[in-house]
Amino acid sequence: MSQKSRGAGRHDRGKHTSRWPLYIVSIALLIGAAVAIAWLATGSVRADAAATHQTKAQDAIQHDDFDTAYREATYAEALASTDQRKLDRGAIAYLRRDYASAADAFRSVPKASPLYESARAGLVVAAAADGNRTTYEKTEGEFASESGKVLKYQAALLIGDVKTLAEACLCDSESVAQHYLVAIGQGVTDPTAALRTLDDQADDEAFVSSDDAYPRFAFQASHVTTEQVATLRSALERAVVAHAPATRKLLIAQAVTPSSYLRYAKSEAESALDDDPKYRDGWNTLAGVQIGLREYGSAERSLQTSLDLDPAFGETWHLKAELAKAKGDPGKEREFADKAKQLGYKK
User: Rounded CA gap, 324 and 306, in Å?
Assistant: First the structure.
């Protein structure tokens, strides 16, 4: 082959070689376009699927099926996450009493979101319901909305934060829940003012039957029944004539014990005993709360202290029977119940 022919061959191969980058770029562009089209198509499919799961979640809420609602809301958020879906998942988790999951969901709403205050209010009450004082204290603060204030004070009651509840204010609120919460905070220092607070409240709110998760959560988390108000009113009427702070604290503790506010009742009972360590009824009230909180060893010690002060008081033996029942000891339960009956105790 001549030198000229070889040179021409090299030139042709050079031309072919120079085209390869163009081929590669073209193929890459085609693949990229295909991926983009597929992504857009998939995004649309995911959005439609998320909306379907959201509808199923709302339907389940209407039927009080919160397990199904939570599952569907989780699917919806996974497919197409939004701040509203994070808020809804937290609300549903609270409704199904999964307070740790509720806190996690509320915490995931970013500060820049317009839903952040609602999420923070949800977080503070979920943390309190879960007994997580660390998260409660980090989250507790001022809220602009009335519903946020109510949830803040509700959280204080759930966690046993006497100081925050004592500082609660109405701020022209007509909410039954807020009047109730403020009255509890006033009860020890000024039971007369607390009674006026209850008298000024609006009518009891109607039950919220909604397929929207957050309004349903906010209602359930803060709702106060007519019976709860009546129980508190009775305690406050007795507190008005009870000059000893220990007695007032114990009356408030007993008023909130039948509901879910055992940590607050415990705080008030312990404070009453700090004022008067020989207060037999205080030790019994504390023991009853400790049984409710499953603090059985502490309840045993409280009841023993009560018996040391008065071994012939039937209610103490009744509480010992309740403790034995909680611990799964039917023999001791019958023994202590018989002893309470012999001493004249009647439920």
Answer: 16
pLDDT tens digits for 245-299? 999 999 999 999 988 899 999 999 999 999 999 999 999 999 999 999 999 999 9
What span, in angstroms and rounded, lies between the C-alpha atoms of 96 and 116?
A: 22
Distance CA 135, CA 173 (A): 27
pTM: 0.79
pLDDT digits (tens, 9 = 90+) for 142-185: 788 888 889 999 999 999 999 999 988 887 777 888 899 999 99
